[in-house]
DNA sequence: AAACTATATCGTAATATTGCAATATTAAAA
DNA sequence: TTTTAATATTGCAATATTACGATATAGTTT
């Protein structure tokens, strides 16, 4: 159905999945990596950098922002974007923790 | 178009995004957390645990397996699933690294 | 072998995502 | 204030995802 039974899951599970989902597209990973290398940039920079049209980039930025992965500050008629380290730390820490527990579990894995 | 311009991105970007995408659904996060708590289990256990039909769970397991997040071993007529720590470590480490670099960058963020 | 158990696959309906042209919005510059 | 610049929004076509009933497949038990 393309619809998710969100009511069946915890707030944390939904939060983590939404962040992961936002990072689940190569263009958005490329945007994050680009942002990381240039520190801050405006939408137009990304449009020049990636082979995607301006509305497409704008949409990807919106999804990254909704997930809390980046934040944008209005500066005149452009918007300065940068990564929000807290969200990346949250998701990274969550997966690392799972990896760590799974690693010890794995001794008696099938 | 619902189609991704994969040819425009690096292998690593695509690999990371595919893992993140697989983790981008609350049911699959719930499956990973469940697997983490019970160490190993079979598909039927998850069907009993989650309010999802057996074909739906089977499909989610397939996606987690394709992304390398879990692995399944045939045991009689059932399949024993468990988490692959390496993939979780890869994705967790990748995000933590980004968080770390972004954290120092952020001193001069907009 | 027949019945049972566990899981995968098929088919399909409902919905979501991706990408972009066209257009709107908002602020700076001339 | 008209033009220019930067970004967002709208609308739409193509495709992907989600969920599940029905069914297939494969091993186990009797």
What would your notes on this structure say?
2 copies of one chain form a homodimer. With 110 residues, chain A is an alpha+beta fold. A 3-stranded antiparallel β-sheet of chain A has the order 1-3-2. In chain A, strand 2 and strand 3 form a beta hairpin. The first copy, chain A, is elongated and about 55 Å long. The mean pLDDT of chain A is 93. Chains A and B meet through helix 1, helix 2, strand 3 and helix 5 of A and helix 1, helix 2, strand 3 and helix 5 of B. Chain A binds a DNA duplex (30 and 30 nucleotides) through helix 4.
Quick description:
Chain A is an alpha+beta fold.
Our estimate of the beta-strand percent of chain A is: 5-15%
Question: What is the count of DSSP helices of chain A, taking H or I runs of 4+ residues?
Answer: 5
Distance between the termini of chain A: 33 Å
List how many beta strands of chain A DSSP finds.
3
The side-by-side strand order for the widest beta sheet of chain A comes to: 1-3-2
Helix and strand pattern of chain A: HHEHHEEH
Assembly level: homodimer
Largest interface: A-B, 59 and 59 residues
Biggest sheet of chain A, in brief?
Answer: 3 strands, antiparallel
As residue ranges, the low-confidence spans of chain A are: none
């Amino acid at each position: 159905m393309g619809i998710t039974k969100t009511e069946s899951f915890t707030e944390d599970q939904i939060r983590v999945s939404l962040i992961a989902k936002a990072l689940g597209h190569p263009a958005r990973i490329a945007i994050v990596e680009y942002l990381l290398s240039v520190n801050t940039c405006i939408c137009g920079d990304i449009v020049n950098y990636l082979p995607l049209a301006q509305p497409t980039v704008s949409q990807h930025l919106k999804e990254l922002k909704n997930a809390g992965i980046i934040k944008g500050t209005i500066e005149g008629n452009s918007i300065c974007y940068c990564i929000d380290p807290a969200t990346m730390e949250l998701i990274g820490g969550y997966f690392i923790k799972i990896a760590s527990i799974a690693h010890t579990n794995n001794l008696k894995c099938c």
